[in-house]
Amino acid sequence: MNDELEVLIGNATTAFAAAGTPSDLENAKAQFLGKSGRITELMKGMASLSVDEKKSRGAAINKAKQAIEAALNGRRQALADEELAKQLKQEALDVTLPGRERGNGGLHPVSLTLERIEGIFGSMGFDVAEGPEIESDWFNFTALNTPADHPARSMHDTFYVEGGSAEAPNLLRTHTSPMQIRHAVQHVKRYKSVIEAGESMPEIRVIAPGRTYRVDSDATHSPMFHQCEGLWIGENISFKDLKFVFTDFCRTFFESDDLVLRFRPSYFPFTEPSAEIDIQFQAGPLAGKWLEVAGSGQVHPNVVRNMGLDPERYIGFAFGMGPDRLTMLRYGVNDLRLFFDGDVRFLSQFN
Ligand code: DAH
């Protein structure tokens, strides 16, 4: 092969190497192997040669052509390999990376408390009742022996809502106590024939947890808060039973057998006598302090009457406690608003 053909092969190889993409490579190919490419030109140039010369020249050009084709194929393969390598790199999966898990949800601390309360009272034979958050004046106040001039009825304390009448407006319940009446009325209805026959009605033993509302907002008050009502009505249920039940509940709830309770005389329209219940831890950061956790008392005869029962025969106790406050005491939270801000950093600590 003469120098001219060697140079041509060299040029072709260089041109192919310079082609960065398959289409560049096809263009470069055309220059050498195309219809009017260099090889074709050389073939045409053989016309004037003798038969012998044609033979040797033709063989040399063919060899050069094969060499150029080999260079072309080599470059094609290299470009294809590069492309594949690039693609593999782009699509690479690092199987050693930690997985992207969906965070596990969990219960709100107050919900955990409510579950705990329901579990403990459930084990003592209490039912769990739920009722409406929009309440009527009758259930929230009047039926609970709360006179029309009671301060809790003030516009400053209570969220009134549309509906109802001027004398009996609807409102967001200010406590769970209306559930005492609602539940007892249902119970009395269910056992109507037993009661009318003068036989003993099964006791009413119920708790009613839920949301309650008052116009109040600071570190220890929120316009929406939780309460849990308790009611036990029978023929011989006394203050002694209240003390026993509530003491047992608090000791179980706080997992503290030496927790001390104090029943401090107080006033509620729907109980007589009434007591505020304070607890005292004997150990831990709150040891020695009296902490108020509930209102309670013997259900007032007028309330028993509004339940549809004879107060001469039926008697019992009620209490109302604040699950938000119980949660704060149990976990050592000092600002009630944290429960309702919805900050996951705070809330996730309880799960
Ligand atoms: N309803 C009262 C309040 O919100 C709490 C309460 C006190 C409930 C005495 C009771 C009770 O059942 O007997 O302040």
Question: Could you explain the architecture of this structure?
Answer:
The protein has 351 residues and is an alpha+beta fold. The protein has two domains: 3-90; 109-350, BirA Bifunctional Protein, domain 2 (2-Layer Sandwich). 42% of the residues lie in helices and 20% in strands. It has twelve helices and ten strands. The chain has helices at residues 3-18, 22-33, 38-44, 51-90, 109-123, 137-140, 178-190, 192-196, 239-253, 301-306, 323-331, 344-347; strands at 127-128, 134-136, 160-164, 169-172, 204-213, 224-234, 260-268, 271-280, 291-299, 315-321. The strands form two sheets. The chain has a seven-stranded mixed beta sheet with strand order 1-5-6-10-9-8-7. The protein has a three-stranded antiparallel beta sheet with strand order 2-4-3. The longest helix has 40 residues, at 51-90. The protein binds 3,4-dihydroxyphenylalanine. 3,4-dihydroxyphenylalanine binds at residues 175, 177, 229, 268, 271, 295-297, 318-320.
